[in-house]
Amino acid sequence: MHIVDVKARDLSSRMFQVEIQMLREHDLRQRMIYCWSDLYVKQVFSGDHYDRLQPAYSIWLVNSVVTPHDPVPIHRYKLRDESNQTLIEHSGIWLIELTKYQLGEVVTEEQRWLKLFVEGETLDDVNLPEWMQTPEMRKAMKVLQDYSEKEENYHM
After folding, report:
1. Closest listed residue to residue 16, CA positions, set 48, 49, 65, 57
2. Residue 85: CB partners within 8 Å, gap ≥ 6?
3. How does pLDDT run across 8-19, given as a tens digit for each residue?
4. Full-prediction pTM beyond 0.85?
5. Which of 91, 135, 149, 150 lies 20 to 30 Å from 75 when distance is taken between CA atoms?
């Protein structure tokens, strides 16, 4: 079961898909590859030139363990050969295993976002902690508040 599946394009025309998974699906790895490839190939149509393809990134936030033998919470997958040479920079699947993230002091922006994903539900949007005192985090909390308060926004 997933609760959020967002597709977006940035100002550089890069494609992004962000999915938040609350429960571990049996075939999650295959689904991750399928969703990334679907995002990538839907950029061109029959007769189009392949130079129209823009980078596509699939970002998965999961509330379960997908890589049990690796304690690292963030994995960045790319198309590479056995000598670690990248075939193309037009790819990326980011897997973020939230259950592996050890909450602590926030030093980097990556840690700030991870902590928001893990603790966001428990935060007081009026009295945000020090680590949330950035323009990006205040905006993120405003978006979360708007979506949680208005039923039509939630379904949008």
Report:
1. 57
2. none
3. 899 999 999 988
4. no
5. 135
